[in-house]
């Protein structure tokens, strides 16, 4: 009984569960259909809304398009009208052009026919010329054959002889013309050179600098002397050690003389002494060193400024810094009392002026002229002539070969071979010959005169000797009985060679030999 109830209960539960499942499935199906129906309704509504929105957008776009077209329509119409006008204008110009082409063709037709006829005539004339050329060649050959028969020689021999004769005549004519032109050049070259030199000198307006070299330094009072010169001369010895120059004290005249081969060191010594002499307190070694360093710094700055200023004055802006430094140091170098800094500036200007007269590069000429004596800033410390030293120095600083050659050759240490080299030689001579440029002291002039007289009188047959024109001419009075004309010429050459070898002098010295014949007669005692 219990089992049956249990079975019945189980079956009831199963049936109830099945019924519940069926009911649940049925409810699910109903819910699904309801959701699908709602989704369809939502899709239909969304589609309707999208269609309405699309219609609204189309209407809005139509409104915008109509609005834009309303604004653009006048411009569009104007453009269409303008296009129509341009088309009409193009058509009109095309018609005019066609008419012009027809007129040009109509006018060119006679010219073309004329050209055609002239071309035919030219062809006929060319044929005739060719025929005449052929006939002339045949005629020439006949003449050559005839001459060959008469001269009893072959055609080749006759032609060779004729060419030889014509060549000789041409050479003779060319030699005559060359001789004529050479004579013309010889006669006119000196006057032309003088004119160019005079023009260049007239254009050079720079005044000569009459500045002298380093002078003596004077003690203004006894205090300066006592303050500088101590008992053991320690101050002087220290100054000499620092500067490399000797100090010579003249006790009688109260002067200090500075001796040394390096002009920059002499200037440095002078500046150091001037600073020390201005001191109001006692001079001691540390003070001397400080004043020496101050003077050295100021001097080197001045040298740099002087080199830059000279380069700027001549318009030379690409010079090596060491070259400008050396040019500035020439400010304290003198030759025959001529300041070499200003001398180099003069030669640079004069060389540029001469180049302008001869249509040569002016900048290059100024450069070579300015640098020609740069070796004088180093010749106290190096062996060799200043021209060679200077040329080697600027060559190592990448100066052009033409400028280097002009510097090396301006005293003929190297044979000058360019126009620029000869311009530098000429400009150097002009600057050295300016009035007052090569002044001598009375001692050096007397020494030069004595040397010249001694050389001239050392030769046999010389009766007397005179030095004229400020040492530029040596006039020798020779015995006419012992010297003939050829020996007098040989004497002048020998004296000139001795002077070149033994005497230091600027410029040139002319040697003149005068053969003197003396006639003497004594009057008788007058009768009264």
Notes on the protein architecture:
The structure is a single chain. The chain is mainly alpha-helical and 528 residues long. The protein has 3 domains: 50-152; 217-432, Hypothetical protein af1432; 442-516, GMP Synthetase, Chain A, domain 3 (2-Layer Sandwich). It contains 14 helices and 8 strands. The chain has helices spanning 2-151, 155-203, 222-228, 234-243, 263-277, 285-313, 321-329, 340-357, 362-371, 386-395, 401-409, 419-432, 442-457, 485-502, and strands at residues 217-218, 246-250, 255-259, 334-335, 338-339, 462-468, 473-479, 510-516. The strands form 3 sheets. A 3-stranded antiparallel sheet has the order 1-3-2, with helices on one face. The chain has a 3-stranded mixed sheet with strand order 6-7-8, with helices on one face. A two-stranded antiparallel sheet has the order 4-5. A hairpin with a 2-residue loop joins strand 4 and strand 5. The longest helix has 150 residues, at 2-151. It is flat and about 210 Å long. The model has no long low-confidence stretch (mean pLDDT 82).
Helix and strand topology:
Blueprint: H1 2-151, H2 155-203, E1 217-218, H3 222-228, H4 234-243, E2 246-250, E3 255-259, H5 263-277, H6 285-313, H7 321-329, E4 334-335, E5 338-339, H8 340-357, H9 362-371, H10 386-395, H11 401-409, H12 419-432, H13 442-457, E6 462-468, E7 473-479, H14 485-502, E8 510-516
């Amino acid at each position: 009984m219990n089992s049956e109830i249990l079975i019945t209960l189980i079956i009831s539960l199963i049936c109830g569960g099945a019924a519940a499942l069926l009911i649940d499935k049925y409810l699910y199906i109903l819910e699904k259909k309801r959701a699908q129906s709602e989704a369809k309704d939502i899709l239909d509504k969304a589609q309707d809304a999208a269609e309405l929105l699309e219609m609204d957008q189309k209407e809005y776009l139509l409104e915008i398009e109509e609005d834009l077209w309303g604004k653009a329509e006048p411009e569009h119409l104007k453009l269409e009208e303008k296009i129509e006008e341009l088309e009409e204008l193009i058509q009109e110009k095309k018609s005019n052009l066609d008419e012009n082409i027809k007129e040009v063709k109509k006018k060119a037709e006679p010219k073309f026919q004329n050209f055609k006829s002239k071309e035919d005539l030219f062809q006929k004339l060319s044929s005739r010329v060719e025929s005449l050329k052929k006939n002339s060649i045949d005629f020439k050959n006949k003449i050559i054959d005839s001459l060959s028969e008469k001269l009893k020689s072959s055609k080749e021999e006759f032609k060779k002889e004729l060419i030889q004769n014509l060549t000789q005549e041409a050479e003779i004519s060319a030699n005559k013309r060359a001789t004529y032109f050479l004579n013309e050049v010889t006669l006119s070259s000196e006057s032309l050179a003088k004119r160019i030199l005079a023009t260049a000198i007239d254009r050079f307006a720079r005044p000569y600098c009459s500045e002298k070299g380093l002078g003596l330094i004077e003690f203004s009072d006894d205090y300066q002397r006592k303050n500088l010169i101590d008992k053991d001369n320690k101050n002087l010895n220290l100054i000499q050690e620092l500067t490399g120059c000797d100090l010579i004290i003249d006790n009688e005249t109260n002067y200090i003389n500075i001796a040394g081969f390096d002009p920059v060191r002499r200037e440095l010594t002078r500046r150091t002494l001037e600073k020390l002499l201005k001191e109001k307190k006692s001079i001691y070694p540390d003070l001397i060193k400080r004043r020496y360093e101050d003077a050295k710094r100021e001097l080197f700055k001045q040298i740099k400024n002087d080199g830059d200023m000279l380069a700027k004055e001549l318009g030379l802006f690409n010079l090596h810094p060491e070259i400008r430094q050396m040019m500035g140091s020439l400010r304290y170098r003198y030759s025959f009392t001529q300041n070499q800094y200003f001398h180099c500036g003069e030669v640079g200007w004069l060389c540029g002026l001469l180049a302008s007269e001869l249509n040569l590069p002016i900048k290059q000429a100024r450069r070579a002229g300015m640098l020609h004596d740069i070796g004088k800033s180093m010749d106290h410390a190096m062996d060799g002539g200043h021209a060679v030293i200077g040329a080697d120095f600027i060559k190592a600083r990448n100066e052009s070969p033409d400028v280097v050659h002009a510097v090396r050759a301006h005293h003929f240490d190297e044979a000058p071979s360019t126009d620029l080299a000869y311009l530098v030689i000429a400009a150097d001579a002009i600057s050295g010959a300016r009035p007052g440029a090569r002044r001598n002291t009375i001692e050096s002039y007397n020494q030069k005169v004595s040397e010249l007289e001694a050389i001239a009188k050392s030769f046999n047959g010389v009766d007397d000797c005179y030095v004229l024109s400020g040492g530029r001419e040596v006039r020798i009075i020779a015995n006419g009985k012992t010297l003939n004309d050829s020996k007098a010429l040989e004497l002048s050459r020998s004296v000139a060679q001795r002077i070149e070898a033994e005497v230091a002098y600027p410029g040139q010295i002319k040697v003149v030999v005068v053969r003197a014949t003396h006639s003497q007669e004594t009057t008788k005692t007058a009768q009264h």
